[in-house]
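Request: Give me one sample?
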Amino acid sequence: MKDSTLRQVLRLAVPALPVLAAEPLYLLVDTAVVGGLGGLELGALGVGAVILATLATQFTFLSYGTTARAARLYGAGRREDAVAEGVQATWIAAGLGLLIVLIGQMAAQPVVELLAGPGELADAAAGWVRIAIWGAPLIMITLAGNGWMRGVQDTRSPLRYVLAGNAVSAVLCPVLVHTAGWGLNGSAYANVAGQTVAAALFLAALRRAPLRPRPDLIRAQLAVGRDLILRSLAFQACFVSAMAVAARYSVAAAGAHQVVLQLWNFLALVLDSLAIAAQALVGAALGARDERRAQSLARGLTGYGLVCGVLTGVGFAAVAGLLPKVFTTDPGVLAEIPNAWWFFVALQPVAGVVFALDGVFLGAGDTRYLRTTTLLAALVGFLPLIWVAHLLGWGLPGIWTGLSAFMLIRLGALLLRARSATWAVVGETL
Protein backbone atom coordinates (compact mmCIF):
# COMPACT_ATOMS: atom_id res chain seq x y z
CA MET A 1 0.00 0.00 0.00
CA LYS A 2 1.38 3.43 -0.86
CA ASP A 3 2.32 5.71 2.03
CA SER A 4 -0.29 8.29 0.99
CA THR A 5 -3.03 5.66 1.06
CA LEU A 6 -1.81 4.33 4.40
CA ARG A 7 -2.00 7.85 5.80
CA GLN A 8 -5.58 8.14 4.55
CA VAL A 9 -6.48 4.85 6.22
CA LEU A 10 -4.92 5.94 9.51
CA ARG A 11 -6.57 9.37 9.30
CA LEU A 12 -9.97 7.69 9.20
CA ALA A 13 -9.31 4.60 11.33
CA VAL A 14 -7.55 6.17 14.33
CA PRO A 15 -10.41 8.57 15.31
CA ALA A 16 -12.97 5.81 14.58
CA LEU A 17 -11.40 3.44 17.13
CA PRO A 18 -12.24 5.52 20.25
CA VAL A 19 -15.80 5.95 18.95
CA LEU A 20 -16.16 2.16 18.67
CA ALA A 21 -14.58 1.63 22.10
CA ALA A 22 -16.52 4.42 23.86
CA GLU A 23 -19.64 2.39 24.62
CA PRO A 24 -17.83 -0.72 25.96
CA LEU A 25 -15.61 1.51 28.11
CA TYR A 26 -18.60 3.39 29.45
CA LEU A 27 -20.29 0.09 30.31
CA LEU A 28 -17.23 -0.77 32.40
CA VAL A 29 -17.66 2.52 34.30
CA ASP A 30 -21.40 1.88 34.66
CA THR A 31 -20.71 -1.62 35.95
CA ALA A 32 -18.19 -0.37 38.50
CA VAL A 33 -20.61 2.28 39.81
CA VAL A 34 -23.63 -0.03 40.01
CA GLY A 35 -21.48 -2.83 41.42
CA GLY A 36 -21.22 -0.82 44.64
CA LEU A 37 -24.96 -1.30 45.19
CA GLY A 38 -24.80 -5.10 45.37
CA GLY A 39 -25.12 -8.28 43.36
CA LEU A 40 -28.84 -7.87 42.58
CA GLU A 41 -28.37 -4.48 40.97
CA LEU A 42 -25.28 -5.61 39.11
CA GLY A 43 -27.10 -8.64 37.72
CA ALA A 44 -30.07 -6.50 36.72
CA LEU A 45 -27.77 -4.07 34.89
CA GLY A 46 -26.18 -7.00 33.05
CA VAL A 47 -29.54 -8.29 31.84
CA GLY A 48 -30.73 -4.85 30.76
CA ALA A 49 -27.46 -3.99 29.01
CA VAL A 50 -27.67 -7.19 26.95
CA ILE A 51 -31.11 -6.16 25.68
CA LEU A 52 -29.99 -2.66 24.66
CA ALA A 53 -26.76 -3.95 23.09
CA THR A 54 -28.71 -6.48 21.02
CA LEU A 55 -31.01 -3.73 19.73
CA ALA A 56 -28.07 -1.52 18.79
CA THR A 57 -26.33 -4.41 17.02
CA GLN A 58 -29.38 -5.23 14.92
CA PHE A 59 -29.65 -1.66 13.64
CA THR A 60 -26.01 -1.05 12.68
CA PHE A 61 -27.24 -0.76 9.07
CA LEU A 62 -27.97 2.85 10.00
CA SER A 63 -24.19 3.29 10.14
CA TYR A 64 -22.82 0.82 7.60
CA GLY A 65 -25.48 1.21 4.92
CA THR A 66 -25.44 4.99 5.17
CA THR A 67 -21.64 5.10 4.94
CA ALA A 68 -21.69 3.11 1.70
CA ARG A 69 -24.30 5.31 0.04
CA ALA A 70 -22.87 8.63 1.29
CA ALA A 71 -19.29 7.67 0.36
CA ARG A 72 -20.21 7.12 -3.29
CA LEU A 73 -21.85 10.51 -3.55
CA TYR A 74 -18.94 12.15 -1.77
CA GLY A 75 -16.48 10.49 -4.16
CA ALA A 76 -18.51 11.86 -7.08
CA GLY A 77 -18.14 15.38 -5.69
CA ARG A 78 -21.76 15.54 -4.48
CA ARG A 79 -21.23 16.27 -0.79
CA GLU A 80 -24.66 17.87 -0.30
CA ASP A 81 -26.35 14.73 -1.63
CA ALA A 82 -24.14 12.62 0.67
CA VAL A 83 -25.35 14.66 3.65
CA ALA A 84 -28.94 14.21 2.38
CA GLU A 85 -28.42 10.46 2.84
CA GLY A 86 -27.65 11.26 6.47
CA VAL A 87 -30.89 13.23 6.79
CA GLN A 88 -32.96 10.31 5.49
CA ALA A 89 -31.08 7.83 7.70
CA THR A 90 -31.87 10.10 10.66
CA TRP A 91 -35.58 10.03 9.80
CA ILE A 92 -35.43 6.22 9.74
CA ALA A 93 -33.53 6.25 13.03
CA ALA A 94 -36.09 8.45 14.75
CA GLY A 95 -39.00 6.35 13.50
CA LEU A 96 -37.42 3.04 14.49
CA GLY A 97 -36.36 4.45 17.84
CA LEU A 98 -39.87 5.62 18.73
CA LEU A 99 -41.27 2.23 17.72
CA ILE A 100 -38.72 0.52 19.98
CA VAL A 101 -39.71 2.80 22.87
CA LEU A 102 -43.39 1.84 22.44
CA ILE A 103 -42.68 -1.88 22.22
CA GLY A 104 -40.10 -1.72 25.00
CA GLN A 105 -42.49 -0.18 27.50
CA MET A 106 -44.97 -2.99 26.91
CA ALA A 107 -42.53 -5.89 26.54
CA ALA A 108 -39.82 -5.06 29.09
CA GLN A 109 -41.06 -7.39 31.82
CA PRO A 110 -41.72 -10.49 29.68
CA VAL A 111 -38.46 -10.08 27.75
CA VAL A 112 -36.44 -9.72 30.94
CA GLU A 113 -38.18 -12.72 32.51
CA LEU A 114 -37.38 -14.74 29.40
CA LEU A 115 -33.70 -14.04 30.00
CA ALA A 116 -33.51 -14.12 33.78
CA GLY A 117 -36.67 -15.86 34.95
CA PRO A 118 -39.31 -14.24 37.16
CA GLY A 119 -38.27 -12.74 40.45
CA GLU A 120 -36.58 -9.80 42.09
CA LEU A 121 -33.75 -9.66 39.56
CA ALA A 122 -36.18 -9.50 36.64
CA ASP A 123 -38.24 -6.78 38.32
CA ALA A 124 -35.16 -4.61 38.87
CA ALA A 125 -33.93 -5.17 35.30
CA ALA A 126 -37.35 -4.38 33.81
CA GLY A 127 -37.45 -1.07 35.70
CA TRP A 128 -34.01 -0.17 34.35
CA VAL A 129 -34.97 -1.14 30.79
CA ARG A 130 -38.16 0.95 30.84
CA ILE A 131 -36.07 4.05 31.59
CA ALA A 132 -33.08 3.23 29.39
CA ILE A 133 -35.27 2.36 26.38
CA TRP A 134 -36.14 6.06 26.05
CA GLY A 135 -32.62 6.41 24.72
CA ALA A 136 -33.37 4.15 21.74
CA PRO A 137 -34.19 7.00 19.29
CA LEU A 138 -31.05 8.80 20.47
CA ILE A 139 -28.88 5.72 19.94
CA MET A 140 -30.33 5.27 16.45
CA ILE A 141 -29.74 8.93 15.55
CA THR A 142 -26.12 8.55 16.69
CA LEU A 143 -25.70 5.45 14.51
CA ALA A 144 -27.07 7.32 11.49
CA GLY A 145 -24.85 10.33 12.23
CA ASN A 146 -21.76 8.16 12.43
CA GLY A 147 -22.75 6.61 9.10
CA TRP A 148 -23.04 9.71 6.96
CA MET A 149 -20.06 11.45 8.55
CA ARG A 150 -17.84 8.44 7.84
CA GLY A 151 -19.17 8.56 4.28
CA VAL A 152 -17.88 12.13 3.84
CA GLN A 153 -14.59 11.02 5.47
CA ASP A 154 -15.10 12.92 8.71
CA THR A 155 -14.33 10.63 11.65
CA ARG A 156 -13.13 13.40 13.96
CA SER A 157 -16.52 15.05 14.55
CA PRO A 158 -18.20 11.77 15.62
CA LEU A 159 -15.29 11.25 18.02
CA ARG A 160 -15.98 14.60 19.69
CA TYR A 161 -19.74 14.05 19.81
CA VAL A 162 -19.61 10.53 21.22
CA LEU A 163 -16.97 11.37 23.80
CA ALA A 164 -19.00 14.40 24.92
CA GLY A 165 -22.06 12.22 25.46
CA ASN A 166 -20.11 9.54 27.27
CA ALA A 167 -18.44 12.12 29.49
CA VAL A 168 -21.85 13.41 30.59
CA SER A 169 -22.99 9.84 31.34
CA ALA A 170 -19.81 9.00 33.23
CA VAL A 171 -20.09 12.11 35.43
CA LEU A 172 -23.82 11.77 36.09
CA CYS A 173 -23.81 8.03 36.79
CA PRO A 174 -22.17 8.06 40.25
CA VAL A 175 -23.98 11.27 41.16
CA LEU A 176 -27.43 9.87 40.37
CA VAL A 177 -26.76 6.32 41.58
CA HIS A 178 -25.08 7.14 44.91
CA THR A 179 -25.22 10.87 45.75
CA ALA A 180 -28.85 11.40 44.72
CA GLY A 181 -29.79 7.95 45.97
CA TRP A 182 -31.60 6.87 42.79
CA GLY A 183 -29.85 3.51 42.84
CA LEU A 184 -29.87 1.30 39.75
CA ASN A 185 -32.35 3.54 37.92
CA GLY A 186 -29.91 6.45 38.22
CA SER A 187 -27.64 4.57 35.84
CA ALA A 188 -30.41 4.42 33.24
CA TYR A 189 -31.14 8.16 33.56
CA ALA A 190 -27.42 8.91 33.16
CA ASN A 191 -27.37 6.80 30.00
CA VAL A 192 -30.27 8.73 28.48
CA ALA A 193 -28.71 12.08 29.39
CA GLY A 194 -25.45 11.21 27.67
CA GLN A 195 -27.25 9.83 24.63
CA THR A 196 -29.25 13.07 24.41
CA VAL A 197 -26.06 15.13 24.22
CA ALA A 198 -24.52 12.96 21.49
CA ALA A 199 -27.72 12.83 19.42
CA ALA A 200 -28.20 16.61 19.72
CA LEU A 201 -24.70 17.20 18.36
CA PHE A 202 -25.30 14.89 15.39
CA LEU A 203 -28.63 16.63 14.68
CA ALA A 204 -26.95 20.03 14.87
CA ALA A 205 -24.48 18.89 12.19
CA LEU A 206 -27.47 18.55 9.81
CA ARG A 207 -28.91 21.99 10.50
CA ARG A 208 -27.96 23.44 7.09
CA ALA A 209 -29.22 20.45 5.08
CA PRO A 210 -32.76 20.15 3.62
CA LEU A 211 -34.63 18.20 6.28
CA ARG A 212 -37.74 16.99 4.47
CA PRO A 213 -38.23 13.21 4.22
CA ARG A 214 -37.42 11.60 0.83
CA PRO A 215 -39.43 8.34 0.48
CA ASP A 216 -37.29 7.13 -2.45
CA LEU A 217 -34.09 7.41 -0.46
CA ILE A 218 -35.69 5.91 2.63
CA ARG A 219 -36.84 2.85 0.63
CA ALA A 220 -33.35 2.39 -0.84
CA GLN A 221 -31.74 2.59 2.60
CA LEU A 222 -34.22 0.10 4.07
CA ALA A 223 -33.41 -2.36 1.27
CA VAL A 224 -29.73 -2.26 2.29
CA GLY A 225 -30.79 -2.48 5.92
CA ARG A 226 -32.70 -5.73 5.33
CA ASP A 227 -29.54 -7.50 4.19
CA LEU A 228 -27.44 -6.16 7.04
CA ILE A 229 -30.05 -7.10 9.66
CA LEU A 230 -30.11 -10.69 8.40
CA ARG A 231 -26.32 -10.71 8.53
CA SER A 232 -26.39 -9.43 12.13
CA LEU A 233 -28.90 -12.12 13.09
CA ALA A 234 -26.46 -14.77 11.86
CA PHE A 235 -23.76 -13.35 14.15
CA GLN A 236 -26.17 -13.23 17.09
CA ALA A 237 -27.28 -16.85 16.57
CA CYS A 238 -23.66 -18.01 16.54
CA PHE A 239 -22.45 -16.20 19.63
CA VAL A 240 -25.57 -16.87 21.70
CA SER A 241 -25.32 -20.57 20.80
CA ALA A 242 -21.65 -20.63 21.78
CA MET A 243 -22.34 -19.15 25.22
CA ALA A 244 -25.30 -21.49 25.74
CA VAL A 245 -23.19 -24.57 24.94
CA ALA A 246 -20.31 -23.38 27.13
CA ALA A 247 -22.70 -22.79 30.05
CA ARG A 248 -24.20 -26.25 29.67
CA TYR A 249 -20.76 -27.88 29.62
CA SER A 250 -19.46 -26.46 32.93
CA VAL A 251 -19.24 -23.27 34.97
CA ALA A 252 -15.47 -23.17 34.37
CA ALA A 253 -15.97 -23.50 30.59
CA ALA A 254 -18.52 -20.67 30.62
CA GLY A 255 -16.12 -18.41 32.53
CA ALA A 256 -13.18 -19.25 30.26
CA HIS A 257 -15.27 -18.68 27.13
CA GLN A 258 -16.38 -15.30 28.47
CA VAL A 259 -12.79 -14.18 29.09
CA VAL A 260 -11.55 -15.18 25.62
CA LEU A 261 -14.70 -13.90 23.90
CA GLN A 262 -14.33 -10.44 25.48
CA LEU A 263 -10.75 -10.27 24.19
CA TRP A 264 -12.04 -11.33 20.77
CA ASN A 265 -14.67 -8.56 20.90
CA PHE A 266 -12.06 -5.98 21.91
CA LEU A 267 -9.82 -6.89 18.98
CA ALA A 268 -12.88 -6.83 16.72
CA LEU A 269 -13.24 -3.14 17.62
CA VAL A 270 -9.63 -2.48 16.59
CA LEU A 271 -10.09 -4.26 13.28
CA ASP A 272 -13.51 -2.65 12.74
CA SER A 273 -11.82 0.76 12.70
CA LEU A 274 -9.88 -0.49 9.67
CA ALA A 275 -13.15 -1.67 8.11
CA ILE A 276 -14.64 1.80 8.60
CA ALA A 277 -11.73 3.38 6.73
CA ALA A 278 -12.18 0.77 3.98
CA GLN A 279 -15.89 1.61 3.63
CA ALA A 280 -15.27 5.33 3.24
CA LEU A 281 -12.32 5.06 0.84
CA VAL A 282 -13.68 2.28 -1.37
CA GLY A 283 -17.12 3.88 -1.59
CA ALA A 284 -15.58 7.21 -2.58
CA ALA A 285 -13.38 5.55 -5.23
CA LEU A 286 -16.36 3.78 -6.81
CA GLY A 287 -18.42 6.96 -6.66
CA ALA A 288 -15.61 8.71 -8.56
CA ARG A 289 -15.76 5.84 -11.11
CA ASP A 290 -12.19 4.85 -10.29
CA GLU A 291 -12.47 1.05 -10.34
CA ARG A 292 -8.70 0.59 -10.44
CA ARG A 293 -8.24 2.54 -7.20
CA ALA A 294 -11.04 0.59 -5.51
CA GLN A 295 -9.37 -2.69 -6.38
CA SER A 296 -5.98 -1.36 -5.32
CA LEU A 297 -7.49 -0.32 -1.99
CA ALA A 298 -8.97 -3.79 -1.56
CA ARG A 299 -5.56 -5.42 -2.06
CA GLY A 300 -3.77 -2.95 0.19
CA LEU A 301 -6.33 -3.14 2.98
CA THR A 302 -6.28 -6.94 2.84
CA GLY A 303 -2.51 -6.87 3.35
CA TYR A 304 -2.84 -4.35 6.17
CA GLY A 305 -5.47 -6.52 7.86
CA LEU A 306 -3.22 -9.56 7.55
CA VAL A 307 -0.28 -7.72 9.13
CA CYS A 308 -2.47 -6.49 12.00
CA GLY A 309 -3.80 -10.01 12.55
CA VAL A 310 -0.34 -11.61 12.57
CA LEU A 311 0.97 -9.01 15.03
CA THR A 312 -1.96 -9.42 17.43
CA GLY A 313 -1.72 -13.21 17.17
CA VAL A 314 1.98 -13.15 18.05
CA GLY A 315 1.32 -10.69 20.88
CA PHE A 316 -1.40 -12.77 22.49
CA ALA A 317 0.63 -15.96 22.08
CA ALA A 318 3.44 -14.27 24.02
CA VAL A 319 1.19 -13.37 27.00
CA ALA A 320 -0.76 -16.65 27.12
CA GLY A 321 0.60 -17.48 30.56
CA LEU A 322 0.06 -14.03 32.06
CA LEU A 323 -2.96 -12.19 30.62
CA PRO A 324 -5.70 -14.67 31.67
CA LYS A 325 -4.70 -14.17 35.32
CA VAL A 326 -5.62 -10.49 35.01
CA PHE A 327 -9.24 -11.51 34.43
CA THR A 328 -9.65 -14.35 36.93
CA THR A 329 -7.92 -16.23 39.71
CA ASP A 330 -10.30 -19.18 39.60
CA PRO A 331 -8.14 -22.29 39.00
CA GLY A 332 -10.90 -24.11 37.12
CA VAL A 333 -11.40 -21.23 34.70
CA LEU A 334 -7.65 -20.77 34.22
CA ALA A 335 -7.32 -24.47 33.43
CA GLU A 336 -10.04 -24.19 30.74
CA ILE A 337 -8.78 -21.00 29.06
CA PRO A 338 -6.03 -22.70 26.99
CA ASN A 339 -8.72 -24.83 25.32
CA ALA A 340 -10.00 -21.64 23.66
CA TRP A 341 -6.90 -19.44 23.79
CA TRP A 342 -4.90 -21.08 21.03
CA PHE A 343 -7.87 -21.08 18.65
CA PHE A 344 -8.22 -17.35 19.43
CA VAL A 345 -4.52 -16.75 18.69
CA ALA A 346 -4.52 -18.79 15.46
CA LEU A 347 -7.62 -16.99 14.14
CA GLN A 348 -6.16 -13.47 14.41
CA PRO A 349 -4.63 -13.36 10.89
CA VAL A 350 -7.89 -14.77 9.50
CA ALA A 351 -9.91 -12.14 11.39
CA GLY A 352 -7.62 -9.36 10.14
CA VAL A 353 -8.30 -10.24 6.50
CA VAL A 354 -12.02 -10.91 7.04
CA PHE A 355 -12.66 -7.59 8.77
CA ALA A 356 -10.72 -5.65 6.14
CA LEU A 357 -12.64 -7.27 3.27
CA ASP A 358 -15.93 -6.81 5.13
CA GLY A 359 -15.17 -3.09 5.09
CA VAL A 360 -14.27 -3.15 1.40
CA PHE A 361 -17.50 -4.86 0.37
CA LEU A 362 -19.65 -2.79 2.74
CA GLY A 363 -18.13 0.30 1.12
CA ALA A 364 -18.96 -1.13 -2.29
CA GLY A 365 -22.56 -1.77 -1.19
CA ASP A 366 -22.14 -5.51 -1.80
CA THR A 367 -24.47 -6.30 1.10
CA ARG A 368 -26.35 -9.17 -0.56
CA TYR A 369 -23.15 -11.17 -0.97
CA LEU A 370 -22.11 -10.43 2.62
CA ARG A 371 -25.55 -11.45 3.88
CA THR A 372 -25.61 -14.71 1.93
CA THR A 373 -22.08 -15.82 2.78
CA THR A 374 -22.45 -14.98 6.48
CA LEU A 375 -25.69 -16.96 6.69
CA LEU A 376 -24.01 -19.83 4.83
CA ALA A 377 -21.01 -19.81 7.19
CA ALA A 378 -23.36 -19.87 10.19
CA LEU A 379 -25.70 -22.59 8.90
CA VAL A 380 -23.04 -24.84 7.38
CA GLY A 381 -20.02 -24.15 9.58
CA PHE A 382 -20.74 -22.80 13.02
CA LEU A 383 -24.14 -24.00 14.16
CA PRO A 384 -23.84 -27.71 13.20
CA LEU A 385 -20.42 -27.99 14.86
CA ILE A 386 -21.48 -26.12 17.97
CA TRP A 387 -24.42 -28.41 18.67
CA VAL A 388 -22.44 -31.55 17.79
CA ALA A 389 -19.89 -30.29 20.33
CA HIS A 390 -22.72 -30.05 22.87
CA LEU A 391 -24.06 -33.55 22.15
CA LEU A 392 -20.62 -35.18 22.24
CA GLY A 393 -19.27 -33.18 25.17
CA TRP A 394 -16.34 -31.59 23.30
CA GLY A 395 -16.42 -28.47 25.47
CA LEU A 396 -14.45 -25.37 24.51
CA PRO A 397 -12.37 -27.05 21.77
CA GLY A 398 -15.60 -27.98 20.02
CA ILE A 399 -17.06 -24.50 20.42
CA TRP A 400 -13.96 -22.80 19.03
CA THR A 401 -13.67 -25.33 16.24
CA GLY A 402 -17.13 -24.13 15.20
CA LEU A 403 -16.00 -20.51 15.36
CA SER A 404 -12.93 -21.41 13.28
CA ALA A 405 -15.12 -23.04 10.62
CA PHE A 406 -17.33 -19.93 10.58
CA MET A 407 -14.35 -17.62 10.05
CA LEU A 408 -12.62 -19.85 7.47
CA ILE A 409 -15.77 -20.19 5.34
CA ARG A 410 -16.19 -16.41 5.42
CA LEU A 411 -12.51 -15.94 4.55
CA GLY A 412 -12.77 -18.23 1.53
CA ALA A 413 -15.95 -16.55 0.30
CA LEU A 414 -14.51 -13.04 0.69
CA LEU A 415 -11.23 -13.90 -1.05
CA LEU A 416 -13.14 -15.43 -3.97
CA ARG A 417 -15.20 -12.26 -4.26
CA ALA A 418 -12.11 -10.06 -4.05
CA ARG A 419 -10.48 -11.93 -6.96
CA SER A 420 -13.45 -11.16 -9.19
CA ALA A 421 -14.37 -7.75 -10.56
CA THR A 422 -18.10 -8.15 -9.88
CA TRP A 423 -18.09 -6.25 -6.58
CA ALA A 424 -16.41 -3.10 -7.94
CA VAL A 425 -19.50 -1.52 -9.50
CA VAL A 426 -18.82 2.14 -10.24
CA GLY A 427 -21.41 4.89 -10.03
CA GLU A 428 -22.76 7.55 -7.72
CA THR A 429 -25.57 5.44 -6.25
CA LEU A 430 -26.02 1.82 -5.21
Notes: Residues 12-213 form one domain. The two ends are 27 Å apart (CA to CA). The chain has a mean pLDDT of 88.
